[in-house]
Design goal:
By secondary structure, the chain is of the alpha/beta class. The chain is built from five helices and eight strands, in the order E-E-E-H-E-H-E-H-E-E-H-E-H. The protein starts with 10 loop residues before the first strand and ends with a helix.
């Protein structure tokens, strides 16, 4: 019988998945067994291994009290494609099984390229995620048969993505989803860490949905 691996103490870890090549950053909260789960999808760029660690720190994801899984994008094509979808969904299952975690709810938090990936994954894995929080991003295409709550965050001075497509997409969703878009005054596309207060508000919205049973 294979011995069970030792439990991970609360903290942030840089790891490699069981496939032997997918690197990911893991944030373990004190109540890892029952904490909510976050799939963190980083922005574009190519850096050193465990590129996602900088993303986790910049957005303050370690402050949420969640079990955070933030992989490095290894496909070279961003997050909005079937190959990336397969990798991240498999990784979430792997982490939950290893840690014995049974998160009551799971959200995607993505920034820029990662935000586009959040829209994509929620569309192509319906029912897998309880909410998405895309930051500084646009939907990758028309939203059809959409059933996932959304809290979109966008800076009014974003130099890369116009807020209008996201604004229109959110406005067109079913009101029962409590979909929201918050436009943060004065923030541009590259002010990543300055979005932390808005993200904390979005996380409170997500937590409220849990208490409301939605």
């Amino acid at each position: 019988m294979t011995p069970k691996p030792p439990a991970l103490a609360p903290g942030t870890y840089e790891r490699v998945a069981a496939d032997g090549h997918t690197r990911y950053t893991l944030v373990v909260p004190p109540d890892v067994g029952t904490a909510p789960m976050v799939l963190g999808l980083h922005y574009a760029g190519h850096g050193a291994p465990h590129y996602a660690t900088g993303f986790v720190s910049a957005l303050g994801l370690e402050k949420l009290g969640a079990l955070v899984v933030a992989p490095d994008c290894a496909t070279g094509r961003g997050w909005a494609n079937p190959a990336s979808q397969e990798v991240v969904l498999s990784l979430l299952d792997e982490v939950k099984a290893e840690l014995g975690a049974t998160p009551p709810r799971t959200a995607i938090i993505g920034y820029s390229m990662g935000g586009i990936g959040a829209w994509y994954l929620a569309a192509y894995a319906p029912g897998k995620f309880d909410a998405i929080i895309p930051v500084a991003a646009q939907p990758p295409g028309p939203l059809t048969e959409w059933n996932t709550p959304v809290y979109a965050i966008h800076g009014t001075e974003d130099e890369l993505f116009d807020a209008a497509p996201t604004r229109a997409a959110v406005a067109g969703l079913d009101p029962a989803l409590d979909a929201r878009m918050v436009e943060v005054q004065g923030l541009g596309h590259y002010d990543v860490s300055r979005y932390q207060p808005a993200l904390l508000q979005a996380w409170a919205w997500f937590a409220k949905g849990a208490s409301d049973g939605t």
